[in-house]
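input
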Amino acid sequence: MNRIFKYELKRLIINKFFLGLLIISALYSREIMCRDIILGVSNTAPFSGWSYGTYLAKVLPILLVTLLFFISFLYLRQEKSVQALTKATPIDPFKFQMLRFGTIIVGFILISAVPIAYSFYFYAVNFHFTNIGSLVLPTVITLLPAMLFVFGLGVLGGQYHQGLVFVLMTAVILVSFIPLPYAVDLFGGNFFTKYPQSLDVVEPAFSIPASVVIGKVIYGLTGLGMMLLSGIQKKRKI
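output
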């Protein structure tokens, strides 16, 4: 299984598309940080949890489009040869599908590491801020639920038609511009920007209301459920 995982991971990341996505992610991260975050968000410091959450929320659509791009690889015509190979091996189809999902998640983590690493560098150089631990919570609450939910939608939709994955890419970009209620704000941009203004405190400490936490948990669990359902359906087809 380890050899198969390494092989699938190499197929995913050792190509010109992955390099191009890394470059795009780096350039966009720099643009957002220098244009929107450097002065802080909602009268908070540029390195506060609120400003950092806003930064990740603005970068997140690009990361999720990249995730869906990776998922689209699963449904290319060339993958039919991989499916034929799978049928001829003793590998359980469900486990093989989960393994391939794992490689895509690793690819997403590598892409996400670009804006995260750049932000740490930016904060250290410009503000001498190195308290990385204070940024873990906004990072997890922003990236993880959104990744799981969009991943689940992508793999489930892609099984019915590859074109649905590309439709989702457009939907991700469009939804990122809609100011949704905090509890259902998948990206978190509206929450990170508006909520601290309602606290009537100068430089409020970073905190997340229970309703927002519940919303993120529901998104994450729904995404996991769709991923498992996709794996089960794949096994039945094979």
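quick obs: The two ends are 19 Å apart (CA to CA).
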